């Protein structure tokens, strides 16, 4: 798969996590708290500006889900290797409300995640 383009989402930001499967995978299933290898792009919901992308670094990234923001901890399990999923994550499930100390605090985030492998 190539680096995804994230379309601007109309309307107000959602108050809850929104999970959309763009491509259904057919490999192993990501388990809660498990190890995952992913490619991803992250953009700000309101501006559409990209703030991070593993694609731009030219390599995937691996990590345990339980070390990530809540939106990823809840949004990735059940995904199958080979799949692409979009997560729209409200601030409370990302980097906290405005003033929480992270540059993305108070922001609703949109990630498109490709699940490359599980471990």
What is the strand and helix layout of this fold?
Layout: E1 18-23, E2 35-44, E3 50-53, H1 54-57, E4 61-64, H2 70-75, E5 84-89, E6 109-118
Antiparallel strand pairs: 1-5, 2-3, 2-4, 2-6, 5-6
Could you name the CATH class?
Alpha Beta
- Could you list the spans in which at least 5 consecutive residues all have pLDDT below 50? none
Cα gyration radius (Å): 13 Å
CATH topology: Chitinase A, domain 3
The number of strands is: 6
CATH architectural label: Roll
**Discrete helix count:** 2
In the residues, how many domains can be counted? 1
State the helicity in percent bands: under 10%
Choose one word for the global shape.
globular
**Order of SSEs, N→C?**
EEEHEHEE
Which sheet architecture does the biggest sheet show?
A: 6 strands, antiparallel
Beta-strand fraction estimate: 25-35%
Q: How is this structure best described in words?
A:
This protein has 119 residues and is mainly beta. It has a single domain (18-118), classed as Chitinase A, domain 3 (Roll). The protein contains 2 helices and 6 strands; from the N terminus they run βββαβαββ. It has helices spanning 54-57, 70-75; strands spanning 18-23, 35-44, 50-53, 61-64, 84-89, 109-118. Strands 1, 2, 3, 4, 5 and 6 form a 6-stranded antiparallel sheet that branches. The protein is globular and about 35 Å long. The chain starts with 17 loop residues before the first strand and ends with a strand. The mean pLDDT is 96.
